[in-house]
Design a protein that fits this description.
CATH topology: Chemotaxis protein chec
Largest sheet: 8 strands, antiparallel
Distance between the termini: 12 Å
Strand content: 25-35%
Structural class: alpha+beta
Order of helices and strands: HEEEEHHEEHEEH
Length: 205
């Protein structure tokens, strides 16, 4: 299907599904860090692939991104992005150590952050699986430390997202203590968007 022709009703359905998944992801992150994590209403962006990084407020901000491929009854990419210092603070919380500011995450930091990506993504996908009755299988997570725009571009290339346009469903995750914030981004393949819409009864006739 041509995702540029999605109707307002279909976009609303995708947003509602994303909202449910993001709620589960925030709950999983809350349990990991023992802090209340809130979400902002998911934002949908339909952009040319080479402009996908514009979904983020500052494409040049230094971030750490955890990315996964989703397979099963649909295909998608998932990216969890944290500002660089927030990611290191999150890793320190999980590892029970004092936060340190350095240019690149240590191997222990990387391992902790990949585990965060895996757990949060599984919570999101499990919510979708139960809602629309499909099987979703995430890959082993990868990690990149770079400017946010470069992380998104790398994910699109490495994970084979070669369509002209991409639908990005982005949800902001906010720690109420303002120590950690992040972005959860779900990038379904166009053919998978149709699968989701059919499952909720709003596919094109």
């Amino acid at each position: 299907m041509d995702i540029r022709e999605l109707s307002p009703l279909q976009l609303d359905a995708l947003k509602e599904i994303a909202n449910i998944g993001a709620g589960h992801a925030a709950t999983a992150l809350s349990q990991l860090v023992h802090k209340k994590i809130l979400i902002r209403s998911p934002r949908l962006g339909l952009l040319p692939v080479d402009e996908a990084s514009q979904m983020l407020e500052d494409p040049e901000a230094l971030v750490i991104g955890i990315y996964l491929v989703v397979r099963g009854d649909l295909s998608a990419n998932v990216v969890l992005i944290f500002p660089h210092d927030d990611a290191l603070a999150l890793a320190s919380m999980l590892l029970g150590k004092q936060p340190q500011s350095h240019e690149f995450p240590s191997p222990l930091d990387e391992s902790a952050l990949k585990e965060v990506g895996s757990i949060v993504t599984c919570a999101y996908l499990n919510a979708l699986s139960q809602l629309i009755h499909i099987s979703l299988i995430p890959s082993v997570p990868g990690l990149a430390s770079d400017m946010s725009g470069a992380v998104i571009d790398r994910v699109l290339i490495e994970l084979g997202q070669m369509e002209d346009y991409v639908l990005i469903i982005e949800t902001e995750l906010i720690d109420v203590s303002q120590k950690v914030m992040g972005y959860f981004m779900f990038l379904p393949h166009p053919s998978s968007i149709e699968t989701i819409l059919k499952a909720v009864g709003v596919a094109k006739m």
